[in-house]
């Protein structure tokens, strides 16, 4: 979850967006959800 949310938060900086922009928050949430899902699947 931490890795996914960190990478998702840094992704908008590739196109010049601020670290605290709306897109950064959205991608951070998506990365966190993806990290939880991946952890769940690896735990099975």
Explain the layout of strands and helices.
Elements: H1 2-10, H2 22-43
Q: What structural class do the secondary elements suggest?
A: mainly alpha
Largest sheet: none
SSE order in H/E notation? HH
* Beta-strand proportion: under 5%
Helix content: over 70%
**Count of the separate structural domains:** 1
How many β-strands, per DSSP?
0
Quaternary: single chain
Rg, alpha carbons: 11 Å
Low-confidence stretches: none
Mean pLDDT: 81
Please report the number of helical segments.
Answer: 2
* Terminal Cα span: 17 Å
Shape: elongated
Architecture overview:
The protein is mostly helical and 44 residues long. It has one domain. The chain contains two helices and no strands. Helix 1 packs antiparallel against helix 2. The longest helix is centred in the C-terminal third of the chain and has 22 residues.
Give the gist of this structure.
With about 45 residues, the protein is mainly α.
List the keywords.
44 residues; 0% strand; mainly alpha
